[in-house]
Design brief:
Layout: E1 27-32, E2 43-45, E3 57-59, H1 81-84, H2 95-98, E4 101-103, H3 110-118, H4 161-164, H5 166-170, E5 179-186, H6 189-196, E6 214-221, E7 225-226, H7 227-234, H8 238-247, H9 255-258, E8 264-266, E9 272-277, E10 290-296, H10 299-302, H11 311-327, E11 331-337, H12 340-343, H13 346-359, H14 366-374, H15 387-392, E12 399-400, H16 405-413, H17 434-443, H18 454-458
Parallel strand pairs: 1-2, 4-8, 10-11, 10-12
Antiparallel strand pairs: 1-3, 5-6, 6-9, 7-8, 9-11
Pfam families: GTP_CH_N, GTP_cyclohydro2
GO molecular function, one term: GTP binding
GO biological process, one term: riboflavin biosynthetic process
Length: about 475
Amino acid sequence: MNTTYSIELVDTITTPPAKRHRPITMAVDIEPTNGTSAAVSGVKAQSPEANKGYSSRVVLTTYPGQSVVNPIPLNWGEADPDNRGPVLVSRNGKTLSRRNAIGAHGGSYCVYTALTIAAGGLPPGFKPSFENTEPTFDFPQQAAWSDTSKIVAMDPFGHDIVRHFQRHLNDGLDVRPTIAVTRANMRVAEISEWIREGQIPVDGNIVISDAGDVRVTKVAVEPVWYLPGVAARFGVDEGTLRRALFEHMGGSYPELVTRPDIKVFLPPIGGLTVYIFGPPERVSDPSVKLALRIHDECNGSDVFQSDICTCRPYLAFGIAEAIKEAQAGGSGVVIYFRKEGRALGEVVKYLVYNARKRGGDTADRYFARTEGVAGVRDMRFQELMPDILHWLGISKIDRMLSMSNMKHDAIVAQGIPILERVPIPDELIPADSHVEIDAKINAGYFTTSKKYTEEDLKQVKGRGWQGWEDLEH
């Protein structure tokens, strides 16, 4: 069904912000067009379906001080969740006027929620039932939960909203979790192989079968950004951050500009998952040893086992070492971040692969290939990564299963000491991935092996495409 819109900007602002010379539209009216009526200010749709399930008023943006704006106080950094207040971002029903955050729940999956509603599979005002969804482990509150310099990229109270914000739920507000805690068994092919080879014992508690079944506590986290804290972490002012987010996400969130009083933003990006091996209470116990792997998503290697990088081998090694540490009475943690292709995405990553393989795949030109396509080497920006460590109560890392200087520096800058850094064993490095790992070592990655000079890197070559069908270039 075709729907057309015409928009006439109207001033509906009751109290314009100071120094605003020409207030822009806060809302427009939506009415069916009959083809003969005079023009009416607002958005006119040919089909009533476009307005089904919604108010006839389309709120494009809001401003502080308007009569329609009455946000629930959200005091980031308060230790008492009741004083802190819930994160309210929904535009449904009475929550619309009480919103104290920008964005939408679900991270990047919020788009699929909108599609499902548009297709009629979900009512716009749906509210979930949280019966029996409480965490399988009650993580003890840490001092960092109320420290605005320690946690700025997740809601520290987002794991148990029923306990913390029941009165707001009872009042009909759309409060939703941004953290979920569960438990499961997992099986990884390499772990099963190492169990069969006797490298990892079956202890009946953590590793529960010789087929490779491993018990794990899992924590899924959606990003919730406290904008002043995020800006401070990156060394920019909050206004610059807000404007950049608004401009370079297609102007999708005008309240980043019009609502400086709202300090919390739920960005449409992937989150993270924590995998805890051994009793989860050990994670925050400084008297036991902790082995930690911080891993950024690489679908091609992690899932489909491409051999152009070390991602899956290092992930499997990290899981194995986490299991062994837990079996020895310590704690093992693997944290998986959705930052595909160094947060550049798979399309950019594959374009870089093409440029590498067609242009001579040598380690000395590894980063230049990425910079040529993306403009930068890396967009993961590990500055926000340590927040989850603070939330878990991790105060020191005995064995850091990572060679990344960026991850190391970000963690140490947040006051968490790293006692030992553990590189990937040489025997786990695929032959074609030496271009990547040797270039990274030369750029600052930790290693206990040889460090290559620029001249050495020219001799490190990846597998070419000789004999494969390819277009002529």
